[in-house]
Design goal:
The protein has 11 helices and 2 strands. The protein is mainly alpha-helical. The longest helix has about 120 residues.
Length: about 350
């Protein structure tokens, strides 16, 4: 059963096991103090110093509560590195005999006791960046290491009792600070969440701004194209109107000239040969009518061309109005104003 709280509840479990009739043997396993503190920081938001105090309390309570019991000391790192040596030491210290393992069972234990079981680990002892331990915690960790190496824990009992009395007096002072620290960590996490949400919103707004700028560029290009088309249509309309005006004047002049010529010829023809010209009068009348129709057709063609040019001009103006009234044009109006202002500010 892996439960660190059993260290401080050992008297309760000894009574319960005694009523049950069981003989309790103690395997005192410990982890490095900084590793435990790192785990408490990760899972409970405790400060490292407070985690070290809790580690010391649990270790001292476990040692004090098991002094009159048969026990063996080891550490988590030794179990992971070489479980066979640890098993032999436990058998020797506790006078127990392990069942004979098969090669398959040993391989299964090797696979189970992997470094992945140690979820959180502080800097290694060889790492110079590891923060120094408080003197009491460092001395207590060294004692545990010596016991794992075979030293007699009884020689350190008086020193351990001094540690335990000092912690019992000072630990109550840590609790309010620990609670306040947890509250502060919660506030920091909440603020971190708000900052992350703001960063996400900022990224979304930045993306929207980039899209708006792209739309502005497209709209500006479309507006420029419409202006160019409008100018071209106006120029073509003016040129066509001038040509039609000149053609109409020439046509009217030519028509009047032809009419005078025809009338003059008719007078001469009638004077010279009234009978013959009477027969040709209908033919000449038809020619005059055809000429009138041609003039009317030319005038209608001119009017139609002017109408088409006017419609094209109106279409260009409507396109320009639609562009200026579009949402993207209105949304990007501040950007255009800012761009114009920056241009005015340039030296």
């Amino acid at each position: 059963m892996k439960d660190p709280r059993i260290c401080r509840l050992l008297p309760f479990w000894r009574t319960a096991l005694g009523r049950f009739g069981a003989q309790a043997l103690v395997v005192h396993m410990h982890s490095r103090a900084l590793d435990v503190a790192a785990s408490l920081t990760h899972w409970a938001d405790h400060e490292t110093d407070y985690g070290l105090v809790l580690w010391a309390l649990h270790v001292l309570d476990a040692e004090k509560g098991s002094r009159d019991m048969r026990r063996s000391f080891t550490c988590y790192e030794a179990l992971i590195d070489d479980w066979r040596s640890v098993a032999q030491g436990l058998a020797r210290d506790l006078d127990i005999t392990w069942p004979q393992e098969t090669d398959q069972e040993k391989a299964a234990i090797d696979h189970f006791l992997s470094g992945d079981l140690q979820h959180l680990k502080a800097a290694s002892a060889e790492d110079r960046t590891e923060p120094p331990l408080p003197p009491v915690v460092a001395e207590l960790q060294d004692m545990l290491g010596s016991w794992v190496g075979g030293a007699d824990p009884a020689r350190d009992s008086d020193r351990l009792d001094q540690f335990r009395m000092a912690l019992e007096i000072s630990v109550p002072l840590f609790h309010p600070l620990a609670i306040r620290t947890i509250d502060l960590v919660g506030e920091i996490n909440s603020m971190t969440g708000c900052i992350q949400a703001m960063q996400t919103e900022y990224a979304q707004l930045a993306e929207q701004l980039r899209e708006a700028q792209a739309n502005l560029a497209d709209a500006a290009q479309e507006h420029k194209r419409c202006e160019e088309e409008s100018v071209d249509l106006l120029q073509r309309l003016a040129s066509m109107d001038r040509r039609l005006h000149v053609a109409l004047i020439q046509l009217r002049h030519l028509t009047k000239q032809r009419e005078r010529e025809i009338k003059e010829r008719l007078r001469l023809a009638i004077a010279l040969d009234p009978a013959a010209m009477a027969d040709r009068l209908d033919v000449l009348t038809n020619r005059v009518e055809r000429m009138k129709e041609e003039v009317s057709t030319a005038i209608a063609a001119r009017d139609q061309a002017r109408k088409e040019a006017q419609e094209a001009l109106e279409w260009g103006r409507r396109r320009e109005a639609e562009l200026l009234g579009s949402t993207s044009w209105r949304v990007t109006s501040p950007l255009r104003a800012l761009s114009r202002a920056s241009l005015r500010l340039r030296p």
